[in-house]
Amino acid sequence: MTAVGTHCPYCALQCATTLHPVGRPGAVAVQPRDFPTNRGGLCRKGWTAPEVLTVPDRLTRPLVRDAAGELVETSWDEALDFVADRIRVLQAAHGNDAVAVFGGGGLTNEKAYALGKFARVTLRTSNVDYNGRFCMSSAAAATNRAFGVDRGLPFPLEDLGGAGAILLVGSNLAETMPPAVAHLKAARAAGGLIVVDPRRTATAGLAEDGAGVHLQATPGSDLALVLALTHVILQEGLGDTAYLEARTDDPDGLYRSTAAWWPERAERITGVPASTIRQAARVLAAAAPMHGGAGAFILTGRGAEQHSKGTDTVTACINLALALGLPGRLGSGYGCITGQGNGQGGREHGQKADQLPGYRSIADPAARSYIAGVWGVEPDELPGPGRSAVELINALGTPDGPRALLVHGSNLVVSAPRLASVRERLAALDLLVVADVVPSETALLADVVFPVTQWAEEEGTMTSLEGRVLRRRAAVPAPGEVRSDLAVFAGLAERLRPSIPFSTDPAEIFEELRAASAGGIADYSGISWSRLDAGEALFWPCPAEDHPGTPRLFADTFGTPDGRARVIAVDHQPVADDLRDDAPLYLVTGRLLQHYQSGAQTRRVAELTEAEPEVFAEIHPRVAAQLGVADGRPVRLATARGSMVLPARVTADVRPDTVFVPFHYGGEGSVNELTNDALDPISRMPEFKVCAVDLTPAWAVVR
Ligand SMILES: Nc1nc2c(c(=O)[nH]1)N[C@H]1C(S)=C(S)[C@@H](COP(=O)(O)OP(=O)(O)OC[C@H]3O[C@@H](n4cnc5c(=O)[nH]c(N)nc54)[C@H](O)[C@@H]3O)O[C@H]1N2
Ligand SMILES: Nc1nc2c(c(=O)[nH]1)N[C@H]1C(S)=C(S)[C@@H](COP(=O)(O)OP(=O)(O)OC[C@H]3O[C@@H](n4cnc5c(=O)[nH]c(N)nc54)[C@H](O)[C@@H]3O)O[C@H]1N2
Ligand code: SF4
Ligand SMILES: [Mo]
């Protein structure tokens, strides 16, 4: 085979790459390709991604657990027969909802679409959700209610390049999407980069070095901070009143809901000096279009979103953007930085508990009847909304809950919150089926494991953080008996409901997805593989073959019924599991440059594991001195849900009241043993980012 143009397997930046087969079976070399988001750059994960194709423990044959409890190799037919029989028996005894499906934001659009259809049509279960609930859901909920549309960035990433100010709330872009840092250059140079993070991250460093501002706020206090920024802008007469009148439904509501948030009050909650809050607000306002500035952006990452108040925090950020007149203005706006490779497309095609393809609502009768028509079933047959990810996990094996779970594209025994309970729920199942490329921690618990293709072995499409649809292309054949996730859905459909067959050809599935999305919010009907292969840059909505796609949304109107953005009044709320005498520090979690998510892939790459081999806890030197803990020495972290022992990394980059632990490690290195599964009431997002923790030197632990 010759060189193939595709995109990185990991994050939503979807850096463009060229793959060259290198002789060894299944192996490729990677080169970055010029592309608007990565401009010829790749991060270390992207450079080393080919290694995952040929890892020694790659899954190459289906596995089934034998009588002795060992996972042993079997054939596809036997594995599919076994799973289909078990599903049949469990559904006959306990109803259709006895089987649940858990998807992933890394799956291609075709896989995500087929997964949702398989759950609704073959299994006829309402129990389907995915790991995007851990990732995107708060921003999605907030943008849906304010704008009526959820597209992470409603503008191309390149638009950041001209901005005079960029406010990053809880995003560590320099480590989580390093090539994207190039787009911050102008704002940095103008002293307009403002970063809100309880740690002095590489991204916060970019702000400080560029004469910008690092707001090192108390974890969980973003909502108060953003309310105060908005307060300053409105009270100092810096708001865009004409825009608010013309383009929002309730300017007065915006004034009322922020009137009491003077900076001195926010200082008490956030720890950020009132003068710094005022300064940041003025920097933002100066860049806003109404003041003749170069443009301003407000962007949120998981640091702002993964909270029990995440939806309201994002809403406050949107309100701030509205106050400045940013959304829909060329060169300005609000955006959420989507995380997973197909985090955007993965949330549009129906793997979400409440959703049908095209970003349609499963509760909407018109949507149900349209999709039922595409699928060739009766609308009444389609199940209703199901449980969200954490609620689904918590219900597994309970009297009313699912008895079987099929997992495609998530390593949830590392990445879900409050792991002791996750393990208990998985153990209570009658059947756990995991499709993966490697024996992940979750796959190792399964009754049946299906070995599936990964990025460089398959064709399909991904939708990047910009809402741009990209082609994933195969460069090498899959090893052994590896097949696509699509073969799992098709094989089970053939056994369980042969009257509605599933294709294993991604191109064919994309054609059906186009039809299913037609007329929906995320309308892909005008996007074809041939247009993409011809190099067209197509952003959804793209409702016709001759439609150019929509790089920028909201220029004239929002997606709400009256076309105006909704101002939703929000107020600060405390952390769900807040500080107390026996847990006096905040535990915050997040990412390292070198590892991806649960680490299932990157912990198998030598260069990356050598760089960051094990979990650690970042603690402030003052705390270390008080406890008598030296750098590298073991500490014990204990929360209401669990405890772990891990080495301390002593650094002044973290707030003294905060401990940071990355979540990329399995087994005893999983910080999710400690995290809180308190949910945001609207998005059902768990509070991964903050909970109270007790920190002690590990040798003081009495066992
Ligand atoms: N290297 C790497 N890159 C990735 C990924 C990966 O696993 N590794 N995953 C991809 C995915 S799926 C995602 S979702 C994105 C996530 O990308 P980011 O959102 O940038 O990543 P995080 O590290 O989870 O969180 C960002 C920051 O939030 C801070 N934080 C914690 N609590 C708070 C808080 O209460 N308020 C504020 N303001 N900040 C807080 C943390 O200190 C952290 O620096 O990254 C994508 N890119
Ligand atoms: N404490 C804490 N926990 C967190 C977070 C945090 O910030 N803090 N962040 C959360 C976020 S934002 C996210 S996105 C989640 C992610 O966490 P997970 O859902 O665990 O995501 P991954 O580790 O990417 O797992 C993907 C799995 O699918 C496999 N895989 C890759 N491609 C395919 C494919 O095409 N098909 C199939 N079947 N499998 C495939 C990979 O090998 C891997 O085992 O973690 C969440 N958990
Ligand atoms: S930034 Fe994201 S898409 Fe780009 S190389 Fe790194 S992991 Fe891959
Ligand atoms: Mo994510």
TrEMBL record:
CDD domains: MopB_CT_Fdh-Nap-like. InterPro entries: Asp_de-COase-like_dom_sf, MoPterin_dinucl-bd_dom, Mopterin_OxRdtase, Mopterin_OxRdtase_4Fe-4S_dom, Prok_molybdopt-oxidoreductase. It comes from Kribbella alba. This is Molybdopterin oxidoreductase family protein. Residues 1-57 form the 4Fe-4S Mo/W bis-MGD-type domain. Keywords: 4Fe-4S, Iron, Iron-sulfur, Metal-binding.
